[in-house]
Amino acid sequence: MFQRGCKFGVLYQKRYDRLHKSIYGLSYDMYALDIISRLMMIYISLQYMFSPLIRKQLANRFPLFYPLDGQKVVVNFFLLMAETGMIYFNLKVMKQLINYRKTKHIHQGFSVYLFWTLALCMVFHVFTLACSTVYLPESDMGKFGIFYVEHVNYIWVNVQFFQCVKFVPQISLNWMGNCTKGLSSKFVIMSLVSSVAGVLSLYVNSTDATNFFLVPWNSYPLFVFICQTMSVLLILYQAQYLYIKNSPYLPKRT
Questions:
Q1: From residue 155, how far is each of 20, 124, 148, 190, 227 by CA, in Å?
Q2: Which of 222, 223, 201, 215 lies closest to 75 in space, CA to CA?
Q3: CA 152/CA 137 separation, integer angstroms
Q4: Is 103 helix (H, G, I), strand (E, B) or coil?
Q5: Quick one: DSSP state of residue 222?
Q6: Number of helices (H) and strands (E), helices first, in the chain?
Q7: In angstroms, rounded to a whole number, what is the distance separating the alpha carbons of residues 228 and 209?
Q8: What is the pLDDT of residue 211?
Q9: Tens digits of per-residue pLDDT, 11-37?
């Protein structure tokens, strides 16, 4: 339900942009964070599924839960395909951001904050990858005690962080322009529905704490859905109350 709501929200935004032939007020950073985080999630999902090194290190660390002769590490194939689909639809909107770039205002575009965040994350992950593999195959433990499975887990944490804050650039852009023009109301509603559905699904399908190893590694935890719900509620407040009577006034970027 979460992934389906996200998909419909993005499709509604794509349709809105196409009808208005404009991307005024739409955040580039929001879509960049979503695309990059989902690409990272696909990468770590494939690592959990097919890396014998990760399987070995998990078996050494948790022999009761991940025995080498037992079932594979749990990765939800449906979620993996849904991530792929979301990347495709987000890229469609990203294409519109490029095609209709003449309609953006002076504060739109890829921000320097996004650039430095991605640069720092990339440096950190390359560092942990180098450390975790420097002594292979003689020793599983890498430099500074970093294992390869920890390198992949660090990327997983990075994915959750990006998903938690992905709506923040849009909130900031709305604040800078005192306006929510360019943002499809259906996109906001479907984003809210999908986030709330994510929270409810975790309660309905909750797994006993002792069976944590049965939770798919490519799923999102509760705090991500809570952060997204709060963010979308703030956008809804901006659109339906704070800036409801405001018209766009920022000049377009030449």
A1: 38, 10, 11, 27, 19
A2: 215
A3: 18
A4: helix
A5: H
A6: 9, 0
A7: 24
A8: 67
A9: 889 998 999 899 999 999 999 999 999
Identify whether the C-beta of residue 253 lies closer than 8 Å to the C-beta of residue 109: yes
pLDDT for residue 209: 58
Could you tell me if residue 144 is left (phi over 0), alpha (psi between -120 and 50 degrees) or otherwise beta?
left
> How many CB atoms sit inside 10 A of residue 68's CB?
11
Both tokens of 30, joined, read 């929001």
User: What is each CA distance from 175 to 90, 95, 238, in whole angstroms?
Assistant: 23, 25, 8
The C-alpha atoms of residue 172 and residue 179 are separated, in whole angstroms, by 11
**Residue in 14, 181, 149, 166 with CA at minimum distance from that of residue 90:** 14
Longest dimension (CA), the chain: 66
Which pLDDT belongs to residue 238? 93
Q: Report which DSSP code applies to 21.
A: T
Which has more pLDDT, 238 or 66? 238
Q: SS3 sequence, 134-160?
A: CCCCCCCCCHHHCCHHHHHHHHHHHHH
CA distance 39 to 215: 20
How many Cβ atoms are within 10 Å of 252's Cβ, its own excluded?
Answer: 14
